[in-house]
Design a protein that fits this description.
Layout: H1 6-31, H2 53-74, H3 82-111, H4 129-136, H5 154-163, H6 166-176, H7 178-199, H8 208-223, H9 227-233, H10 237-251, H11 264-284, H12 289-294, H13 297-303, H14 306-324, H15 332-358, H16 360-369
Helix pairs in contact: 1-2, 1-13, 1-14, 1-15, 2-8, 2-11, 3-14, 6-7, 7-8, 8-11, 10-11, 14-15
Length: about 375
């Protein structure tokens, strides 16, 4: 089975990022609303699929490992330019936009959304001096400030730390092989998760190292010339994806207990396996309708600024809930419909403006400065 062309690959990856970002926005829109006194009935219960926003973050982490491993898998097995060059590229790509989003979040808190309103946004306020400085150094989850300032920022700190392990993982890939490295990363990430919980009282979501490595393995299966991986390439990844989908449905909580967190690490690992198999599946099946949909112009366009959507959607949702759709506060279903149908497109539009001002310039400059 031949590897897909790079152009096709990047189009559907952008579309997949777009789908994950939109899912996260609707997920947080759902968390903004209290359905306790007016539970959903009938087909309305279908919206509870958006309670699993964490699964979209799992997918983002796997996509990150997949994308960063691509040039390594298609090349000579090393990081182009070396580890220092890799760190510079990642820093230039991630940090400036993150700091602009942090500044925007602080400005909106100061001007518009600084009072607790009984919504999910309440976990982001008040802002303390401690949370301000821990967010600057992306160590906010180490000190229990995971959700301060902007509750979506927790995963940025997690992924930023994983980048520092990427050169080590690539080295292990060459010395020990991709399969053994992935197994070791999964075991290491679980042990580290438990140790962090016991020692500092915070898991730091260390198990995401394992999910990131799954993404690396997926890219290697698709693009590597390694003999053992070529054999894996011929597996029926469509059936594997369907099987993993069934497993995830069975282990996920139902709509009556959506916020229970026990064993979430196990669920994340299974979602990581699903994400890896899904990426492999859509990389090979050229006529797959999912791949064609993700590669359409609209999805790939939104995917180009999915990072901006993820960074700034949380305070915008609170503004819409608090100021634009306030007449629907006593009507949960109408509030959710308003935030989803009208608020989400508005957030996408505003995020594109933010992208043009605070993300795209650094993408262009990075190519010139680090070329």
């Amino acid at each position: 089975m031949e590897s897909p062309s790079p152009a096709k690959h990047f189009r559907y990856l952008d579309g997949l990022r777009a789908a994950a970002a939109i899912f996260v926005v609707i997920h947080h829109a759902l968390l903004q609303i209290d359905f306790t006194h007016q539970p959903l009935i009938g087909l309305q219960k279908l919206i509870y699929i958006f309670i699993y926003g964490r699964y979209a973050v799992d997918l983002f982490i796997v996509i990150s490992g997949f994308c960063l491993m691509l040039p390594v898998a298609k090349g000579d097995g090393t990081i182009r330019g070396g580890a220092i060059y890799f760190f510079k590229r990642r820093a230039w790509r991630i940090l400036p936009t993150y700091y602009f989003a942090m500044a925007l979040s602080l400005l909106l808190i100061w001007l518009l959304v600084n009072k607790k309103t009984g919504t999910h946004w309440d976990i982001s306020i008040p802002v303390t001096e401690k949370s301000f400085f821990t967010h600057i150094f992306l160590i906010h989850d180490v000190f229990g400030n995971d959700f301060n300032i902007n509750h979506a920022f927790w995963s940025i700190a997690v992924e930023w730390r994983i980048y520092f392990l990427f050169p080590v993982l690539v080295l292990s890939w060459r010395k020990l092989g991709p399969i053994l490295t992935t197994i070791m990363a999964l075991l290491f990430s679980y042990i580290l998760f438990e140790l962090c919980n016991r020692i500092i009282g915070s898991s730091l979501n260390a198990h995401y190292i394992g999910l990131f490595t799954m993404g690396m393995l997926g890219a290697s299966i698709v693009f590597s010339c390694n003999n053992s991986l070529c054999r894996l390439r011929s597996l029926s990844w469509g059936y594997i994806t369907v099987f993993m989908t069934v497993i995830i449905i069975l282990i996920s909580p139902n709509y009556d207990e959506p916020f229970r967190q026990e064993l979430y690490i196990v669920k994340d690992y299974f979602v990581g396996l699903w994400s890896m198999s899904f990426l492999i599946m859509i990389s090979f099946e050229d006529r797959n309708w999912i791949s064609r949909f993700l590669s359409c112009n609209l999805m790939t366009f939104i995917g180009t600024f999915s990072y901006s959507i993820y960074l700034i959607h949380a305070p915008l949702l609170q503004i819409f809930w608090q100021y634009l759709f306030s007449p629907f506060k006593a009507q949960p279903w109408l509030m959710f419909a308003s935030l989803s149908i009208f608020g989400t497109p508005a957030i996408i539009g505003l995020s594109y403006i933010f992208f043009l001002a605070c993300e795209q310039p650094f993408i262009s400059k990075r190519k010139k400065i680090l070329a």
